[in-house]
Fold:
Amino acid sequence: MKHLFFLSTIIAFSVSCSKVEKVEKNMDTMKTQTEQMSSTTEEMKETTTIMYQQIRSKEAEDTRNKKFEILSSESQDFGAKIAAAAVYFKSFEFQLWTAQSSFDDAHAKDVLILDAVNEFTKRVSDIYEKINVKKMSPTNSGKKHSAEQSFYALAATMHMNHQFQESLTDSKTSMESTSFYDIVKSALEKDSNGESLNEYEEVLVSGLNKEIMIELVKARVDMLAALGLKNLTDKRDMTFGQKMKAAIFKISGGHLGVIDLPETFSKSNESTKKQAIKYLDGANKAKKFLSVIEIQKNLEKTLKSAFSQIDLAEGQENQDNEPTGYKARILGLVQELLE
Structure:
């Protein structure tokens, strides 16, 4: 009986060991499969990241190319060029930077900005060759002024940011949104102060590029001022006398006559007045920036003549006591532009 009990124990122990070995083998297999799955997941993640970057670059570039075709076209109207320029600046890839440390770190953003700067300076130089900054005006129209309109459109929309960047800034409070206009101003101001510049800033202030960037900011003053003027006047209501004075002004090159446009302030709604203030404020900010880098900017002569006639008193007796204060604000901004 003892032998039988001993034999039974050995058999039971052997069976038990076999089961343990099987369990251990299964666990090793599961561990290997888990590691393989983890490796596969990482590979898929890396592949997805690469694909995202490639797609992002391609889509952004395609958008910019399409919008610049509009800017380069002589058949497109001024409004279409302004709309295209806004999307063009929003489509630079640095605008879609995600702040993810895996691939969109701070260095990656600098590289994307450098790409944007290199592309923009080359493209805007083609437009710059076709214009005469001493003779152009945002009031000019027609195909022969197409290049001027493109330049003004770019100048007026440099501050535009993609909504993605704005959302990213909101979600990460330590970050600040960066527009192409911010980049240009930083480069010009650092150069003016003799400070060291990074690579993309050096591109913006090297050779002819610096001249173009300054002229863009000057054009921004005039273009935003013109948009503000459009919200305060309506040339469709010009009298015969006003048209004659404007014609004389144009023929004489501004030496005779005057640009006297019918004012619409008294008939405008609050939104129109706010929009006028927004444009005039933007024009003044650009003008003040130029003064910071010791560049003097006077309003283009047509705009200067038109603004010199603005008093916002047409058709309303108690404008001085306007409760909203829009009149005083607008007149103050106009005076700053004329100084």
Q: What stands out?
A: The mean pLDDT is 84.
